[in-house]
Amino acid sequence: MSTTTPEHDARVAKLTFAGVYPHYVTKVEKKGRTKEELHQVIEWLTGYDDEKLQDLVDRKVTFETFFKEASLNPNAHLIKGVICGYRIEEIETPLTRQVRYLDKLVDELSKGRKMEKILREA
């Protein structure tokens, strides 16, 4: 089983959502998707509505806090594949796996996947 290093996991945990979020918005908008669709994907994964997302950005929370406060979707385990060189289902550290879930969803959105596929409905 390939896994991340403790150093990698520590770096991921310390990243702030506010620092990464604008990159998510840019990535999806460059590919013709909307911030609303991005929010829909984030809400599906975490349970966060627009107001809560803005609160998390304003508070500059780390990904550790971001996922600690989240209500992870029970179907999140269906998110599989490779992102940032790691196979998601093989990542042993729960927080790093959750961050990669989010990265993968943003990636699928920017690649034009149908929303029901991204949200693991079909």
From TrEMBL:
Q: Which InterPro entries match?
A: SP1917_dom_sf, UCP033199
One matching Pfam family is: DUF2200
What is the official name of this protein in its record?
DUF2200 domain-containing protein
Q: Which organism is it from?
A: Sungkyunkwania multivorans
The organism's lineage is: Bacteria, Pseudomonadati, Bacteroidota, Flavobacteriia, Flavobacteriales
